[in-house]
Design goal:
2 copies of one chain form a homodimer. With 219 residues, chain A is an alpha+beta fold. Chain A is 19% helix and 37% strand. A 6-stranded antiparallel barrel of chain A has the order 2-3-4-7-6-5. In chain A, strand 5 and strand 6 (101-116) form a beta hairpin. The first copy, chain A, starts with 19 loop residues before the first strand and ends in a 21-residue tail after the last strand. At the A-B interface, strand 2, strand 3, helix 2, strand 5 and strand 6 of A face strand 2, strand 3, helix 2, strand 5 and strand 6 of B.
Amino acid sequence: MSEAQMPTPRTRVVREAHRGVYDRQTAYAILDEGFLCHVGFSVEGQPFVIPTLYGRQGDSLFLHGSAASRMLRQMKQSLPVCVTVTLVDGLVLARSIFNQSMNYRSVVVLGKATLVDDPGGKREALRLFSEHVIPGRWADVRPPNERELKQTSVLRLPIEEFSSKVRTGPPVDDEEDYSFPTWAGVVPLEMKSGDPIADERVPAGQAVPKYAQRYARKP
Amino acid sequence: MSEAQMPTPRTRVVREAHRGVYDRQTAYAILDEGFLCHVGFSVEGQPFVIPTLYGRQGDSLFLHGSAASRMLRQMKQSLPVCVTVTLVDGLVLARSIFNQSMNYRSVVVLGKATLVDDPGGKREALRLFSEHVIPGRWADVRPPNERELKQTSVLRLPIEEFSSKVRTGPPVDDEEDYSFPTWAGVVPLEMKSGDPIADERVPAGQAVPKYAQRYARKP
């Protein structure tokens, strides 16, 4: 795992360049904390951006590939995509509106996605999605059968060309604005879970599994 | 405001078609609850997906347009984009892995974005972004000056071609799986705010404004 990945001209952060981070460790920590990505691809010059689940295994991303995979099948080749994962950490209230900001961590991965076509690979990807979203669940579910694997579409994207962008900490105002008489600071934001809701056909008294209690994304 | 917008072939939901929703009311409720969008555009055949803030005014979306606007300026014309907003409402734990799902609400808007070039329009967009993210803040901040407006880039996207996709409620398992002995249900998820953190130069004793206390996105 290279710790000092160089950005390419396509992944170098241009705006707010000081927020660009290019090592795999930072990117993988963000990818592992999130579970929803937005995958972008083009059809006849029109970009599409579709939210979908993903998982990471080593230096590959696996995507639940419904929309994009249909297109890929038509093309019968690999598909240029952009996968972006964004974690929102807080609102940054500066004294000037111009310095208002957001604390966040995002990763952009560019590359060519290919279909995972063999049932074994698809099964492994389903396990990956499941364990990525809710670790421990896989052992408790009815596993996929052959028919279901046929209906599942999975894309693999090598994590080769990527960059992260990270903003943390308090607002940064222009020096002359610090005397402006308004409150300034950060409103922290985090994805939080509520109490699990059993469906109507769970037998009364059946315990909620540990992994569904106090579910959280932060490591 | 049309209540029965027809989808175009490009916005019709194909996968899980029963989750497609095409009225403006649904789309606008989602757009108004979220504040972060993912905007997709293409450069020389490579799609890019960039997270950014947005605001809505009537039937237009306004985007904080850093990355995309640089490109647009080169093209000197409008830019085909896709703007996607996704709200995550919960994890859906079904008995079969195949029916594992997520409760979410998303909107996809396709169209051509144009630069907002006049200072008045940019100022209004900054107000819109601010009030969209944290209503009430605009009145308390140092407003943008001429230099800052010059550095601000804003894109406008008419909301003409769009669709929403919504999943709510408990897992839906195949009938034969309901006897499978595992817990099934929903883990609700919501973006929650923590206690506001004043920066070091806020005078001791200065009250946290109301809009920053118990901040929440749900209406």
